[in-house]
Design brief:
This protein is 57% helix and 12% strand. It has 120 residues and is mainly α. It has a domain at 44-120: Winged helix-like DNA-binding domain superfamily/Winged helix DNA-binding domain (Arc Repressor Mutant, subunit A, Orthogonal Bundle). Strands 1-3-2 form a 3-stranded antiparallel beta sheet.
Length: 120
C-alpha cells in the first residue's frame, strides 16, 4: 500500500495570516461575540424606541413611563430593557420599587468606534 504524505494541520488563522497566534484569534472571537450581542440588541425597533426615549431624558426614565409610551405590555418592555442592560447600553438605578434607566453614552461611543474601526 502506498504511503500518503499528510500535510501538517495548522490553524485557520495561521494559514491565512502568518504570525497570528491563537491567543489573538480567541480575543478577537470574544470581542466579536460581545459586539454581536450589542448589535443584536440594537436590531429591534422596540429597543431602538426605548433607547431614543431614554436618550431624550438624561435624568432617567422610569419603566412605567416606557410602558406608557408604547403599545406593549409591561412584561414585554421589561424583556427589552433587560436585553439593553445586558448589552451594556442602559444604566439602571433603583429608587424604592421603581427602576430608572439612563443611556450609557460611553457605550454608544464604543459602538461608534467599533463601527469606525471596521474599515481600517
Amino acid at each position: 500500500m502506498a504511503q500518503v504524505n499528510q500535510i501538517p494541520r495548522i490553524s485557520i488563522a495561521e494559514g491565512c495570516c502568518p504570525g497570528l497566534t491563537a491567543k489573538v484569534a480567541c480575543a478577537a472571537e470574544r470581542e466579536a461575540k460581545r459586539w454581536a450581542a450589542v448589535f443584536k440588541a440594537l436590531s429591534d425597533p422596540t429597543r431602538l424606541q426605548i433607547l431614543s426615549l431614554v436618550a431624550r431624558n438624561p435624568g432617567g426614565v422610569c419603566e412605567c413611563n416606557i410602558v406608557d409610551c408604547t403599545p406593549l405590555s409591561q412584561p414585554t418592555i421589561s424583556y427589552h430593557v433587560k436585553v439593553l442592560k445586558e448589552a451594556g447600553l442602559l444604566h439602571v438605578e433603583k429608587h424604592g420599587l421603581w427602576c430608572y434607566y439612563r443611556l450609557r453614552k460611553d457605550a454608544l461611543g464604543q459602538v461608534v468606534a467599533a463601527l469606525s474601526s471596521l474599515g481600517r
